[in-house]
Automatic annotation (TrEMBL):
It comes from the Eukaryota. Keywords: Signal. The keyword Signal applies. Residues 1-18 form the signal peptide. Residues 25-49 are annotated as: Disordered. This is Uncharacterized protein. It comes from Venustampulla echinocandica.
Amino acid sequence: MTYLSLLAMAAAIPALLAFPTESNPLEVREDPTPTLGDYTGQKSQYEDGSGTYVRSDDSYTYRPSGDYCWTDTFFVTKEDVAQAWTKADTEVDCATTQSCSTSSINSTNACITWTFDNHLDVSMTWIKDVLSVGYSVGFSYSDQRCYSSTSSNTCTWDDKACHATWTSNVNYKVSGYIRRRCNYVTGAKEQTIWSHDYTTIVPALKTRLGCGASCSDTSYPAEIPPV
């Protein structure tokens, strides 16, 4: 190997080990924030460190600097949100049946939503951890994204009319923020470099059952019940 070849190799080594930058894609080895995303330049509406700590993700050590960064999730608020009445598939014509009642009714499927980057597929593990802190119900959910809720009561009528059942779901609305923390080897030590708000809406696994509609009703004849 020639002297010039050795010089070329020596010059290439610092470039390959350089701190990752968007301006030079060859320096980027992997995505440092694959779980929750990168929100550089953003700041949460919530005070840094407020709320309840949930978990940390996307830890990453940059080379050759040794700077270490990670993303914390915090839960701040929760709200039960009542959904509009939706007609179920069950109709009972009491003029043609001896059993003028229903068993438990399942609502139509409702799916989990969140306000992170639309291209980001947030894991169910993260969602269940947030629910466990906000509602203590994370353990009730599997790894699927959509659920059919079950009514906790039944309908019974004592006439000869035709009756339709309706359901009103409840959603768990959980809000908080994530923040990116970095511990720098030189200069400023541990600090928050960005933060980003999130809202996650998860269907509760129970629904409310409405027994007051006739088969011909196109809307439910009562207000949405409070949560």
